[in-house]
Amino acid sequence: MAQAGRLRDSRRDGGATKQTMKISPTWVREFVDLKVDDRKLAEELTLTGTAVESIGADGVFEMEITTNRPDCMNHYGVARECSAIYDAALKPIQPHVPKAQGKANFSIEIEDAQGCARYTARIVRGVKIGSSPARIAERLAGVDQRAINNIADASNYTLWEMGHPTHAFDLDLLQGGKIVVRRARAGETLKTLDGAERKLSPEDLIIADANRPVALAGVMGGFDTMITERTRNVLIESAWFDPVAVRKTSRRHGMHTDASHRFERGADFAATTVACARVVRLIVESAGGELVGEEIDTVARRIGRAPVPLSRAEVLRILGEEIEQTEVERILRRLGFGVTPGRAAVAVSTRSASPGSGGVRAAVAEEAATYTIEIPSWRLDVEREIDVIEEIARVHGYNQFANTLPVFSGSVVEHTDAAKDERLRSRALALGYNQAISLTFISEQDARQFSSAAGVELENPISDEARFLRNSMLPGMLEMLGWNLNRGNDDVRLFEMGDVFELAGANVEEHKHLCLGATGNAEAAGVHRAPRACSFFDLKGDVETLLAAFEHQTLYYDAHAADYYHPGRSARAVMDGATVARFGQLHPEIAAARKLRQDAYVAEIYLDRLYQHGLRQVRYEALPRYPAVERDFSFIFGDRVTYEQIRAAVEALRIGELRRFVPVEIFRDGAIPAGRYSLLLRATFQSDERTLRDDEVALWSSQIIKTLQRLGGALRAS
Amino acid sequence: MPGRTGEGACAYVVYLDTRMYQVSKLTDYSPAALDKAVAELTSALEQECTVVKNEAEWKALRDRWMARKNGILTQVNELWLKVAPGEAKREVGRRVNELRTHVETDVVAAQERMAGRAAGGKLAAEQLDITLPGIRRPIGARHPVLQAMHDVVSVFKSMGYSVEEGPEVETDYYNFEALNFPPDHPARDTQDTIFLAGQEKKPARDRLLLRTHTSPVQIRTMQKYPPPVRVVCPGKVHRHDTPDASHSPLFHQIEGLAVDTNITFCDLKGTLDHAMKALFGSSVKTRFYPSFFPFTEPSADVQISCPFCGGKGCRTCKQSGWIELLGCGMVDPNVFGFVRHNGYDPAKISGFAFGMGADRVAMLRYGIDDIQLLFQGDVRFLEQFA
Known about the structure:
The complex is a heterodimer of chains A (718) and B (386).
Chain A: E1 18-23, H1 25-29, H2 38-48, E2 51-55, E3 61-66, H3 75-86, E4 107-110, E5 116-125, H4 134-142, H5 150-162, E6 167-170, E7 178-183, E8 189-191, E9 197-199, E10 205-208, E11 213-216, E12 220-221, E13 234-241, H6 243-252, H7 258-265, H8 272-287, E14 290-299, E15 308-311, H9 312-319, H10 325-334, E16 338-341, H11 345-350, H12 359-369, E17 370-374, H13 385-396, H14 418-430, E18 434-435, E19 441-442, H15 444-449, E20 456-457, E21 468-469, H16 474-485, E22 492-504, E23 507-519, E24 521-523, E25 532-533, H17 536-547, E26 555-558, E27 565-575, E28 578-586, H18 588-593, E29 600-606, H19 607-610, E30 629-638, H20 643-651, E31 658-667, E32 676-685, H21 694-710, E33 714-717
Parallel strand pairs in A: 4-7, 18-22
Antiparallel strand pairs in A: 1-3, 2-3, 5-13, 5-14, 6-13, 7-10, 8-9, 10-11, 11-12, 15-17, 16-17, 19-21, 20-21, 22-23, 23-29, 24-25, 26-27, 27-28, 28-29, 30-32, 30-33, 31-32
Chain B: H1 8-15, H2 31-50, H3 55-66, H4 72-82, H5 86-125, H6 144-158, E1 162-163, E2 169-171, H7 172-175, E3 208-210, H8 216-224, E4 229-238, E5 250-260, H9 265-280, E6 286-290, E7 296-305, E8 322-331, H10 333-337, E9 350-357, H11 358-366, H12 379-382
Parallel strand pairs in B: 1-4
Antiparallel strand pairs in B: 2-3, 4-5, 5-9, 6-7, 7-8, 8-9
């Protein structure tokens, strides 16, 4: 069966929900006299809500009908729209049915009134199965509906003409002279028209004869009772099935048919008899036979449509412009709504006129300004005043309304993290990192390798390699670095800001992270200079630059990174006691396993923790008025002495005038014994109050030397 | 100063041609004859001063004119003044004194000019081929999608909107139920939802999924703040889509919401028309046509006239002259029903909501024809946006 294709493209931007189907304008014009040409018609249908996406070479419209408008998923429904747009009369469908002979001797029982509100049936005996007349076959071919035989085609023709799904059974194959609409029993099975043997669930709404299931209600008929070349007598089913029941059954069995598509969205409760008669009429015309017995119309419950009050004041309040009374009435009547000026008694009591003097006059004004709207049986989507207002607006034409700007009384609330995000982003960009976005999904292996946090698994992943939500930004970053290296992009710097996900009991926590990735040269090769490969210290400098944007008391780096880093070339940053970053060279084994052909340097910055700190507040410091004095110290240290120890030891001297203390040169090998290194340190002394005296500087220098000697350093020269 | 016979005189003679000025005896001491002789001499002096190029040449020049022994000034003294008749001596003497000053001034000036030219030579040696490419410090590029998002948000911020964010993992309640998607409604099918595993035991509304749109932020915002509100919410959304040139399981949306007393459909139209003009240029037109979203009523899709061809029809707009960009509508009263306790009485307030795809805006703006490029991190792609 022709299945409504899914068109997604642009539709997804606002989450719009549409389906495409073919509608022939020639067929539509059978029901309404239109003067416009097809192209103009297509445009005006689109502008009023039944969108024509394209016009085929054969002139057939490819239409997108939103899920709330099953009434337009057929030619008569589209004709009704045309009737409203052009204020033209809609011709009724009143099939002429031949006089019935004899009695049907058949009964319909609805056991499940919730699932089936109405079941209308007719019997035609003595049909001759064959192919449909060319007129029918061509019409069906035009809407991509394959012709089957004259009975099935009559049913399909009716579906495409007026939208109500019907089904034809081979009457002689129905056992016990009755149809029962019920839920399936445990263990029951049904071979459907498509040949599939289906195990039925007790929740499935089915059509049964006296003994067994013969159809999945509203979804598909049964194989064993279908029309075949041997069929002589047929029973035509035209029913109203509950949308939720049909949807559950069709989902459970993974079936989506033209019938289920319409029943799920809501069929027309009043259309069962007309549709049934229409099928009979077509069968008699194309397959002969005679109608036996009167229509069997079993109503288990009525699908009523409560009238809706419509106030002109509400139309104005929502739409912002008056629409003329005659226009309102014309639009609604053409769409099949009943329009009665004045408010129905029930409705008035819910919104009484304002008390006080002039009550009579107010009541009169209210009278003129309100309507009671009767909702047509095919418009299950309209049940409130606002729904009626939409009908008026869309047919009136959205583009008829003025463009105004609202007067606003609120205040602007700045998103608290926005400034921090922007500060980090601009620094990362200035450092030469390109902003990237990687996918949110990672493999189970990656979820275990790069985080100790419990991973969040998906029920229906896109692929097996994407079964987890990322609990680290690294897999995505490494994927992107690898992508570049595999394409000859050797010098890569990327950063990504985004959320990682971890399971916290029954809930999921989202933490905002920033990830840096760098490989290749820190300084590219060029005509003016030699290249310089990216190193741990390039990355560390970049991390320092990012962290420096935030207020903090203490910040130190130690070697407690994580096992996916190179053990000797990685670090973590601890700001005021909290780990705010880990970074370094990716462990070579992991790099090899991921086929990265260059060293990769990566950093993870935990923004949820970093953002506990405010952005650094700049405070001006007076420029120095007295000259600075520099002293260099050349030491040899054992390898186990770290710079941090040296720095901390000198800091512990608390020399107020020591303004700067930095390593200037580091040197190993050559004249330096193995296991030791030479370090040139530079101290800058300065006072805000006076020019320093030589003896002071000499004293501080000797303190520094003594301290460094206590660390095991040997002074080379001074 | 003068007084030495420079060795450079020989070299000097070598390059000076034979037509060099020679001092000759005066035969006529009339003022006119004196004028002529002085003019010849000064003309030669100026000529020789201008050609001095280096220190050696300058020394040769100095000695030729000012050497005490046989310098030109000395010769003038000998040949003009000493032999002059008595009555002319006074006049000739005055002229010779003038000449002395003149020569000294010119020779010193020649030295200064020569020194300046030498310095120019040093700078000339430092000349670079300035047509070689410069050393560029790489700067990173903002991602085109995030740039588009930033631009859209900026437009709305300038119109008084606040920025809100919401979680990417949402509950069924926020993603669907409170947005008026009833359970088991076909409208849910089109959302291609990705669900989290292990949710079966929870009540349906608490089950977790990846938000399929940024619209849940509408509900979260209205729970957080009573009316009036005016927010935009940029963010990531996910759907169960197989990646291809126009589909990605990850994409970006910007949601907007304005609720107040007396917000109308005309306001919705005006706001989006203004925003589209701010984003795509003031000549861009908007066109609204009906659509369906469970959480708005009336609902609309918005097209803009193609900013690339001005509506004439081109590849970008598929020859239609229009590009679909937004979904929007008036907030459905049922949605207000979920936040009524926070002051959202649909009889008193009204509002509009809209959503647009940031990826789509970026792709349109830069002519990107494959959405996958956005999420590969390929620097050849990203660097184009620097």
